[in-house]
Structure formats: C-alpha cells, structure tokens
Predict the structure.
Amino acid sequence: MPDLRWGLTVPFTGVPLAHHADLYRTAEAAGFDDLWTGETAGPDGFTPLALAAAVTDRVRLGTGIVNPFTRGPAVLAQHAAALADASEGRFVLGLGSSSNVIVERWNGVPFVKPLSKVREAVEQLRPVLAGERGLGGFKLETRPEHEIPIVLAALRGKMLGLAAEVADGAFTNWLPVSGARQVADAFGAPDKELVCRFFCIPKPADEAMGLAKWMFCAYGTVPVYTEFFRWLGFAEQIDPVAAAWHGGDRAKALELVDEDLMHEIFLFGDEAAMGERLAEFHAGGITTFVLTAITEPADLPRMITALAAARP
C-alpha cells in the first residue's frame, strides 16, 4: 500500500489568487505533502498550481481534476509539461471525464462516452509527455525532464478499473466512509495511490448541517454523482433528493437529505475529530487525503496548521 499523503484543496475560497502565496507557504511548513486544485466555476485547474510552484519547494502539485473534453490532448500536454518544468518535477496530472453539467451545459461540448474519452486521452498523452509524437504529429518543443504521473478521477467500477489499468492512481470524491472499501476493492490496485477529497467544516454537525446539505444537493444531483451514490447502495437516500431538485423544488430536496449520510461524507467538529474519522477512511483503503478547508478566510492559517496535525 502506498504511503499516506496529506493534501489540501486549493485555491482557498474567498481569498484572491494574488494573496495565496503565504497560505501555500503555511501549508508546506505545516507538513502537507500535496496541493490539489478543483475546476468547477472558480479558477481553472492549472493557474493556482503555477502560483504555488513559484513559492513552494517540496509539496506535490496536482490537478483534481481537469477533463479531456474541454481541452485537447496537445493543450493538456502543454499545461502538464509547463507545470512539471516550473515545479521541477512535482506535478501530477489529475484527469477525469468531469460531468454533463460542466462539459455540455457550460461548455457546449457533447458529453458522450466518457470512459472511452478518458482512455483515449491517456493513450494520447503518454507518448507526448515522454517527448515523442502524438495525435496529428504533435510533439512538445522541449522534452519533459521529469516523469508526469497521471491519476484518473473515478467513481464507479468501470472507471476505477480503467484507472488501475492505465493510470498511476485513482481520484475519488464525495465518498461515504461505509463505501471506502467498496471503492478500494473496485479499484483493485493496492500498489497505486487512491486519492479522495474531503470537506472539512470546523463546526458542530448541527450548526454545519445546512451548509452540508446544500453542498450535497448541488453535487449529488449531478447524474454522475447520483449514479455513484446508487452504486454504493444509497439509492433510497439519493433518489428522492434528485427528483425534488430536478423538479425545481430545491427546498424540498434540502429537507429530504439524509443526515446520517452527511455524517458519513463530511468532516465536522474539531480537527481531532476529523483526524479520527479520516483514520477510518485510511483503514478502508484511501492513501492520499485532499482536505477542503471550509472556513472564513481569516481562519485559514489556523485551520491549515490544525489539519496538518490531524494526520492519522
């Protein structure tokens, strides 16, 4: 089993990118191993890592994740090679299909055959990132000096299997603790890292439940995540929520969210309690932890340091 790695989600909500340098330095000094971006409706997945590369020396930098629908293989290779160069080999390309919302609704690109699209992207990227010619004869001007690992975003069996077959690891998300072993077994590659993002709210569960439910509805009703929760055995909990949300009754959807499921997914309370829960995920097969600190900007330095100390 790979060594446990401790990471953070960047950029930090509510903090301008121009003011991230000190937070990146704080994370590295506190002992974090990784910084991983997201890419939804905020900054793109690459720019925050370019900024981090300039002010850190040790932490690994990963996209978590970008997709091959809205960027072609040549552009993805250029991004990856540039960040590997800027960070002196600390970059990991986290790649995944994303969702119909981001790909099709927001970008106007048909969201079809995601499994095939991701497989093709890896096959097209591997030779180019090794300095060889790829699709259409494309070749990077300068051969990358450093190996660039590829980690695939994967929620269910087929994509987890693809990650085990062609990638260096898998990246999952919104995982209930009771489903960790199912995901790890479906991945079936104990020699490769299994990354997961977690949402950390440093408040008692009863105070944070409203925010947790809203976040869950926004993600859980996206078809790829609805299918993920069904696959994990939570159809009874997710189906009424998705039906109400897509029917336009968002207040009803929030009312229908199962609070026990929120306790399985979110990390509430102080950092010690979070660390205890994360140890359960580690026992279930997660090896790389990407923690999303959900707090006010002024509290981020404290929370970053505290989360670093919560490592199992």
Remarks:
- The beta strands are 5-10, 34-37, 60-63, 91-95, 150-153, 169-173, 193-201, 267-268, 288-293.
- Residues 206-265 form one domain.
- The radius of gyration is 19 Å.
- The first strand starts at residue 5 and ends at 10.
